[in-house]
Amino acid sequence: MASGWDDVRAPLSNAWQADDSAAAPETSFSGSFSPENVSKHANGDFGAGAADGGCRICHEDGHFARDCPDKKDTGECYNCGEVGHNKAECQNPRVEREFTGECNFCGQPGHRRVDCPNKPAETCKVCRQEGHIAANCTANRMFAEFQNLGIQDMSAEEAWKMLQEADKDKDVIDIKKAILSYVKAWPEVTFEELENVFRESEMHTHLIAKEQEVSDTHTIVNLAGKQDQKFVVSIQFSEKPRRAAFAAGWPPSKEENLVRLSQAGWPMDRMVPKCVNCNVGHFSRDCPEREPEICRNCQKEGHRAKDCTEERVIICRNCDGQGHTA
């Protein structure tokens, strides 16, 4: 039997055929959603008010639940202890209250972790000594930077040669390490003195004192270890900004730059934690102003919903309404 490209194989009896001999399966789809797939918020069953925009407490339009005149009083204010408002709304002076919870370090009741007598001695993150924390440390922060960066002991002459080599290569990291090595060998040197020598020696490196914001968990430290300086020293290879993005905060003249360098330094971590509650130097878990835990199920203090012993209430995480989920 001859075969060729023009031969067409007959379709199998059970193969798909593009004709109308087989009817398509019937379907009841009408283009609308089935009742179980329709949001309960769509018809105002929950939250009330037109388009679910009303008050979920009194079910009237024109205001939200937080402004409802029929809203039940909240628990005691964590700031003053009075009923009817929370800490965010409180205008009264703070009233100290006895701590009745458990310490999250030793598990004993009656004191917080920060006051725990069983807690080990504090170790300073700056000087590594016991008995104080970084916020109270008086050690030279620049000396601590020597240790963190592994700056080796060497003579001022050796450090200067290292600085000259780094300047030729225009390697910013090596330049900074060489400057720190030189400062370690000669602690009296300042940024403005270094900048003057760089210009006299016609070196590539420029020390530019810029106006620049740093985060509140950092501080600007000069070569003598003094904190909270005003300007940030930037290692550049030109006395003028080469890009528009660098121009912000740049000194307007050489003279102004030298004046700024006397109040400038490098940003360093304060090694002090920032409390997200009160912004003071401790962790939020140790904050004396920490808001108490409020159970989402029973609205009482002292535990979370997962530990609540009351009958479980179904609460919508979308609208805070009860009896349904989001």
How do the helices and strands follow one another from N- to C-terminus? HHHHEEEHE
Counting copies of identical and different chains, the oligomeric state is: single chain
Proportion of residues in extended strands? 5-15%
Q: What spatial order of strands do you see in the largest sheet?
A: 1-3-4-2
State the total count of DSSP E strands: 4
The geometry reads as elongated
Gap between N and C termini, in Å? 70 Å
The chain-level structural class is alpha+beta
Number of distinct helices: 5
Gyration radius, rounded: 35 Å
Question: Which bin fits the share of residues in helices?
Answer: 10-25%
Major pleated sheet: 4 strands, mixed
Summed over residues and divided by their number, the pLDDT gives a mean of: 78
Model regions low in confidence, pLDDT < 50 over at least 5 residues = 1-5, 11-25, 40-51
InterPro entries: Znf_CCHC, Znf_CCHC_sf
Pfam family, one: zf-CCHC
Keywords: Metal-binding, Repeat, Zinc, Zinc-finger
Protein name: CCHC-type domain-containing protein
